[in-house]
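Internal ticket #5521
Category: modeling
Description: The requester needs a full-assembly model to guide mutagenesis choices. All entity lines are attached below as received. Residue total reported by intake: 1111.
Assigned to: D.W.
Attached entities:
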Amino acid sequence: MISIGAMIILAVVLALITRVFLMKHKLLSWVLFSAYTAFSVFVLLKLYGNWNYFETMNLSYLVGRINMRPGFLNKPLGWFFSFFVMAMSFLNSFFSMGFSKSSHSRNIVPHWLMILAASLTVFFTKDWLLFIIGWETLGWASFFIIMGGKQKKYKDSMSYYFFSLVSGMLLIAAVWMIGIKFRTLNIHTTTRSMIILAKNTPWQAFPTLLMLTLSFLIKSGAYPFHIWAPRAHKSAPADFSPFISGIMIKFGIFGLLLYVIPIVSKGYAGYSIFGMPVFAWVFSWLGIITSAIATVLAFSENDAKRLMAYSSVANAGYIITAIFLGTALGIKGGLLHAFNHMIFKAVIFMTIAAVVYRTGETDMNKMGGLAYKMPITFMTFLLGIIAAAGIAPMNGFVSKWMIYQALLGQKHYFMTVAMFFASTGAFLYLYRALHAIFLGQIREVHEREVKEVPFLMQIPMWIGMILMFGLGVFPGYLLRPMMPLMKTFGSSISESLNVVQGSVGSLNTLFSTVIFILGVVIAAAIFFLSAKTHKTPMMDNYTSGEDPEEWNVTPNKYQFSYGFYEPITKMFSWALKRSVDKAYFKASYILKIIGREINMIFTDHNNWGYAALLGLLAMIIGGLFL
Amino acid sequence: MNTYLTLLIILPVFAAFLMYFFRKADNWVNIAIMSFVTLFGTVSSLVMLFSQGMEVVALGGWKPPYGIVLVGDQLSLIFVALIYLIAYLIAQFGGIERTKTNDHKSGALFMLLTAAAAGMILTGDLFNFFVFMELAAISSYVLIAKGGCRSSYTGALKYIFTGGLASMLMLLGIGILYNTTGTLNIAHLMVRIGLVGDSLRWLALGLVLCGILLKMEVFPFNLWVPESYKGAPAGMKIVLGSILSTVGGYALIRLYPILIQNPGLIKMLLPLALLSLILAELAAYREKHINRLLGYSSAGQMALVMLAILFGGRIGIYAAIFIVIAHAMAKAVLFFVGAHFKESTGSSMWESYRGLSKISPIGAALFTIAALSLTGIPGMMGFWGKLSMIGAGLASAKYFSIAIILIITIVEGVYFLRISGTLYQSTESDVKAKASYLLIPAVILVLIIVLVGFWPGCISKIINGGVSAAERSSEYAKLVLDYLL
């Protein structure tokens, strides 16, 4: 049995080897990466079911008065997240092998391996110290990967790293407070102690809980910490975007489920509102607000990656709402949506990366009509956005349905309505992306040069399509293995292959898929049996037969979906005017001015006397009051 | 064993005169003398440190508290080993300005500085400490002024003025202490400090602290820092950042038992340290010249050390020692690599270092690792220091200070990684890497940083010894005063 510690060390060693020797050999690096992730998946599969497995390493760290030996525990929550991280990285590696032939790809394997090592650490660790170490490593490793993408300045990666640092600092402070209070840094012990503390004296538990929640929410891109997401996802290398948008955004969710949700759901004895502790209710609403705002922001986006980044943020919002409900159904819905989202969002980003590979573009207004040139990519993207919009028969439908059921079951009608709004909006902007990239008029330069991506890059797309459809028809294939995970959250429902239990009913996915296929068959029959089609050129379709040359529009210039949602954007301009983005920008500007002024203190000699006085004043006043 | 302590101070002085003797010879003679002396110092202090011995030498046979003693307990030996290691690396590899010509003057002054620094650490007598401090200061004035650009002169002048003023104040404080307690021996002072009346004690300690805080680059004594760091020659920059500030940190740790007897003093120093931290790091945030930026960062880190000491307790002292060591090493790496970058591109503005990772990948990696260590990222030495410090602060319930420290850490992380990001951007410049031998000492130090980062246990035992040495003032007094009786 290979130990988890060995896997982590192996990843670090491989990262070092790749960084030092193999930076120029991209293909070989990706092959190594592929081998490593495949091996990890194999090791993880062997670990499944072995929930009492633990290992301790032979080092000991003395931190303050707490002596600790690092160790790893195999628990379902950590197992599932690790499994998905490794499996999706494995899929991605095939894609990257093909992508690495492109001239603007950089070798991100060493840093990605460090991320994998850090992920394993975070997911399996027994104590908070290793958690912190893993968390910080995730921060700087992904910073360097995002740096490697295309950007004129480093502002996008700095924005990401800033939020990562804030999250890390909050985490360290909270963990220390926990350590000082409970005299131990073991995660399980502290969870149980915290539950007891929250039951008896909720106000004492509150600061630590708040800090931890904020730290994890920042990593998930919740409002008002969401601004790093579109920037980082856009600037990241195209083959890393699937990972950062699909997987890394979920690490915050992992933290919440690991520590915060058990405390908040098992009896936080604070004030209650609508049958939920106030703490949880506030954050549930925060999730809804996040999705609503992300949806509105996505309407005006013209860049494919930024649009999908907002979609990720919105989905993270749904998950946050669902898990803070605290009920078994809510947690199950949230978790299922998290895993489903990992799959479909990664697949969507892979298709976008495929488009980048062929066209070098992510600006949707400069694309169009690629469906005939890249049919597999188009199919994958289509299935992906159907899943993302939460429409049967894809996997996104099941998890979204479950979240709605959880909300309705707890009688949160307002939240349900708000979520419907966000969800419908999601369909609007996702379909626009589809049209802008794949349908409509194709540009001349693309007409000549673009063809489908090589088969190596298609493998993960095919697998993704099969997964999305398969898990949509038979969600039991994911829900059944998740039963031990749900057991830790107190639910012992046994899952069937295609019937999903909700709160006000149940969903038979096989049945709904059959109806869907039946509908497709009927529609196809009507299509083929009716009158003969008459093919018209697309420009005639768009321009209603007029001659566009009269308005200086050539087929090349005319993008059908340009400014498509302008009316909607106008409708929400009152909200878009006050943006958190501007607030952050203003804060950073103020910080710059302060920095410059302070710099002047040191350089301008006339100020020295005042500086000395300032120091003296600080001593006296501070000494009196602090 | 007994004579090694004295040798640690005398040998560099002897080397300084020796270099003057050989002034007509080639340059390699100079380098050989300096390297041999500093290497000897490093090895012997490390040997003494790891053999857990406690040495006290009464100079001239005069017993304490009448004579001057040299004390080599765990705390002193850690610091002596540290500065000798850095001095060795500078002596061996730091010679950019000295090419063919035999610059015996700089070498001699550097040796005197090393001797003085070692003396400051090893001595057990307060006035002796002052004397060595002055020796170090005067050597540094001249060495900084040898930088060759306009800032060297302005920086040296600023250092002279502030340093001179602070020395006067410190002398006054020492005088008051001598007058009231009748002794200058540090150990004896720890015992007899209660004899001094309350307000006089505050005055005396405050005056003495003025001198120490100047070395530690605490506001408002750090106004000399940016200019001096900018103008000093490359080797001297490392001395300033890694050796002199380290000695200041040592002095504060050594005086800790005296300090904690005056909780009011600690209460007053805390906001000063916080202010110093905030101002230094915010000034660094906007700085475009890399050496001034590193100077501000130095000041900020020393403010952190001061905060750690002020938080108190075993964790606080542990954190302070750890941060000092981590800072000395990381700062030396940053200056070495910075000098290498400057030689390669000809500019000291970090914005012109865009894309240097292509030309000097090792240099960029070393810079990044050292910068990450200063910020406190796990995997490097600085993480354990920062972690312990936050623990110390929370344990002594100084929540406001901890909040400020965490926010400032974020600022620090941003500006350091900004430079690192600039290094890794893509560019089409065609500079060549020069002076790559400067990277060798950086590699050695980075290896230590990463080793301790992953396995802090290898030095934590020694540091715990140092903590005990710092904390138990009664034992220290007993050790010194009774040792030779």
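Resolution: model delivered.
Comment from assignee: Chain B touches chain A through 57 residues (CB under 8 Å).
Ticket closed.
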